[in-house]
């Protein structure tokens, strides 16, 4: 097997193992109902994590996404309350705003040669602030179209419900996979993550790619905001505080290197589901306090990183041996 | 003199900011003496800036080694929880402080070992403690807000000495101690060496691993101290909210202080002025009478302006423009200059 696939394989193996342990203790966790809920509850996180994966693959980071999700919810709720626009029109407007916002951050990062960490931190303050400016209250969304979106689901065998937002996450992951692994843009992203100077020498248009990367992340965050607003049926400026860090953790658990240049979008989906699984297990158990979620996710993060490190070292040794034997054969 | 030149941009920014706030709130710089205490917006900033200020001191060192410490806000929650737990379990004040600081140092040791010995990137290594630390703090407080009524401990958060708020004194003393330790010994130079190139400094005989661990321990200690101050201020440990997102403010302060996130040369004084700038923005927006909903937007805009002005690219372009203007004044043709090179 290609050593590059080791982290992904490890991620999938650990997820399968964790689920097996859960099922042994609570056999009902094998049902499609649990699967459906797992997808629905983590839909917004999964979508935003796809955008984060692309950003991290390029060696960057986007701290603004949590605020963008909150802004999206508030924007939609206020627009639906104060205007007669159809939700679909509002969605298009919103996605235009968040994509433009992401592109602006990408432009600043490139033009000013500032670290993405700081620029997106300022973006995080700005978006949260804009959400506050729209409203400081939780605004409910009452629109027949929202009831339609919320009620749409496909009944899986075993009476599990694959909701619209759960399906939206799966589609987003599929799109992310195609974008990252099958397009010219994706190749540029990986090249940029490997090293900016090298990428430039290879003919990657660094500026344009950087703008596109953060625009994509903004688009995904906007989409995630829409999904979150369907999930909660309201907009609240204090919502999803810290989601950016959860998304980063999911990406890391999914086997993507934070240095950039190596990773898989599919791994991110598994990372999100692993974190969701822990939450579900704690709900099933009933006696564990919620703070154990945080501690276990931290430990899991540590375990994955240590695993990745040792795998990388192993593959480096293996790769070295392979080259050596090839050289010997050539000699 | 060199120090002054180094911190000049930050001082100018702070002065401009103070002028701006004074424009909206004329009494900004007024300090009165009430009940033997100095009272005024400036003292308020010095007091409220203590938490971010303390974090900034440790963060500057970590950033100088090309690292980052995302866990400091969480470490504040842990040390605050430990302090509140100890003082409510009849531990003496000295023992309580020692326990809380040990908790901070232990957290730093953990981060440092992950970074220096295991070789994990700092941002991921500290992310682990950042996500799990609040859980640990809640474990200590059992999910409640642990309150206490010990006057001695509360003094550290809300008392005053010689008319000056104690948190401001703690902040100033810690910053002075670490700055002297770094600049009066070779330590600061060694930290910079590790930040510029770890393997080269290791080859030159710097014990990079120990130094890295020490830097994270220092950051943990600063965070522990900040946690004590924050718990003492509200006379209780709130595991969910103590130090929440303060790590971001601290990193911002370090960057506004002109320190590169890529490590190398650092200035604690400049970082602290950065922390003061952030606190002045926060307090200034409130004093100037803007509705509190506008705080974050104004803060983001100001931060963006400061960052754009300090951007390395922009400085480079200004220098190029300046050079071109000088050339034009001196009448040296561009082509001749180019040929000379």
From TrEMBL, chain A:
Topology of the protein relative to the lipid bilayer: Multi-pass membrane protein
UniProt keywords, alphabetically: Cell membrane, Membrane, Transmembrane, Transmembrane helix
Protein name according to UniProt: Monosaccharide ABC transporter membrane protein (CUT2 family)
Protein location: Cell membrane
Organism: Breoghania corrubedonensis
A GO molecular function held by the record: transmembrane transporter activity
Transmembrane segments: 44-76, 88-111, 117-141, 162-179, 211-231, 237-257, 264-284, 290-307
Database matches in Pfam families: BPD_transp_2 (PF02653)
Domain of life: Bacteria
Main location per the UniProt record: membrane
Stored InterPro entries: ABC_transp_permease
UniProt GO cellular component terms: plasma membrane
UniProtKB/TrEMBL annotation, chain B:
Membrane topology annotation: Multi-pass membrane protein
Keyword entries, A-Z: Cell membrane, Membrane, Transmembrane, Transmembrane helix
Molecular functions (GO terms): transmembrane transporter activity
Compartments where located: Cell membrane
Residue ranges of the TM segments: 7-25, 70-87, 161-181, 202-230, 242-262, 269-290, 296-315
Any single Gene Ontology cellular-component annotation: plasma membrane
Main localization category: membrane
PANTHER family per UniProt: ABC TRANSPORTER PERMEASE PROTEIN YPHD-RELATED-RELATED, GALACTOFURANOSE TRANSPORTER PERMEASE PROTEIN YTFT
Entry protein name: Monosaccharide ABC transporter membrane protein (CUT2 family)
Organism, as annotated: Breoghania corrubedonensis
């Amino acid at each position: 097997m290609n050593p590059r696939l080791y982290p992904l394989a490890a991620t999938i193996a650990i997820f399968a193992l964790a689920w097996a342990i859960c099922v042994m203790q609570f056999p009902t966790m094998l049902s499609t109902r649990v699967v459906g809920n797992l997808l629905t509850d983590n839909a917004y996180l999964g979508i935003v994590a796809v955008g984060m994966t692309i950003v991290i693959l390029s060696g960057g980071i986007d701290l603004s996404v949590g605020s963008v999700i909150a802004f999206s919810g508030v924007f939609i709720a206020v627009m639906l309350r104060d205007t007669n626009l159809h939700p679909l029109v509002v969605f298009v407007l919103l996605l235009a705003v968040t994509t433009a916002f992401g592109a602006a951050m990408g432009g600043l990062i490139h033009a000013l040669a500032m670290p993405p960490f700081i620029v997106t931190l300022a973006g995080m303050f700005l978006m949260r602030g804009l959400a506050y400016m729209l409203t400081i209250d939780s605004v409910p969304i009452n629109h027949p179209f929202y009831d339609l979106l919320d009620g749409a689901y496909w009944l899986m065998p075993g009476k599990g419900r694959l909701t619209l937002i759960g399906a939206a996450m799966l589609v987003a992951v599929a799109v992310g996979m195609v974008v990252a692994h099958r397009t010219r843009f994706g190749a540029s992203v990986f090249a940029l993550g490997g090293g900016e100077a090298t990428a430039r020498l290879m003919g990657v248009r660094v500026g344009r790619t950087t703008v596109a990367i953060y625009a994509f992340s903004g688009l995904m965050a906007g989409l995630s905001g829409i999904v979150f607003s369907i999930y909660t049926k309201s907009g609240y400026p204090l919502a999803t505080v810290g989601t950016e860090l959860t998304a980063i953790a999911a990406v890391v658990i999914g086997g993507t290197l934070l240095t950039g240049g190596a990773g898989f979008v599919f791994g991110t989906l598994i990372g999100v589901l692993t974190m969701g699984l822990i939450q579900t297990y704690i709900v099933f158990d009933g006696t564990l306090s919620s703070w154990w979620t945080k501690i276990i996710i931290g430990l899991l993060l540590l375990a994955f990183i240590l695993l990745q490190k040792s795998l990388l070292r192993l593959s480096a040794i293996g790769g070295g041996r392979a080259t050596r034997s090839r050289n010997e054969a050539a000699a | 003199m060199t120090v002054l030149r180094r911190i000049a941009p930050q001082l100018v920014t702070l002065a401009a900011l103070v002028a701006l706030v004074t424009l909206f709130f004329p009494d900004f710089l007024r300090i009165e003496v009430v009940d033997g205490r100095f009272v005024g917006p400036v003292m308020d900033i010095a007091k409220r800036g203590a938490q971010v200020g303390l974090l900034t001191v440790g963060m500057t060192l970590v950033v100088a080694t090309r690292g980052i410490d995302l866990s400091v806000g969480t470490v504040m929650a842990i040390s605050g929880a430990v302090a509140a737990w100890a003082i409510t379990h009849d531990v003496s004040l000295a023992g309580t402080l020692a326990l809380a600081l040990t908790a901070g140092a232990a957290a730093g040791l953990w981060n440092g070992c992950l970074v220096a010995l295991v070789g994990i990137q700092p941002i991921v290594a500290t992310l682990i403690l950042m996500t799990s630390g609040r859980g640990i703090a809640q474990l200590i407080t059992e999910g409640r807000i642990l309150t206490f009524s010990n006057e001695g401990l509360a003094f550290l958060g809300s008392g005053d000495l010689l008319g000056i708020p104690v948190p401001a004194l703690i902040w100033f003393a810690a910053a002075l101690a670490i700055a002297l330790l770094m600049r009066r010994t070779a330590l600061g130079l060694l930290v910079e060496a590790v930040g510029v190139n770890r393997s080269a400094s290791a080859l030159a005989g710097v014990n990079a691993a120990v130094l890295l661990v020490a830097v994270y321990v220092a950051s943990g200690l600063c965070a522990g101290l900040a946690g004590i101050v924050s718990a003492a201020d509200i006379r209780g440990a709130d595991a969910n909210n103590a130090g929440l997102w303060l790590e971001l403010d601290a990193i911002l302060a370090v960057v506004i202080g002109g320190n590169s996130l890529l490590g190398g040369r650092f200035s604690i004084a400049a970082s602290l002025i950065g922390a003061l700038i952030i606190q002045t923005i926060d307090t200034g927006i409130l004093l100037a009478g803007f509705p509190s909903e506008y705080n974050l937007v104004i803060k983001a805009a100001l931060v963006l302006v400061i960052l754009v002005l300090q951007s390395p690219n922009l400085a480079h372009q200004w220098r190029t423009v300046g050079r071109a203007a000088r050339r034009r004044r001196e009448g040296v043709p561009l082509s001749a200059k180019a040929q000379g090179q």
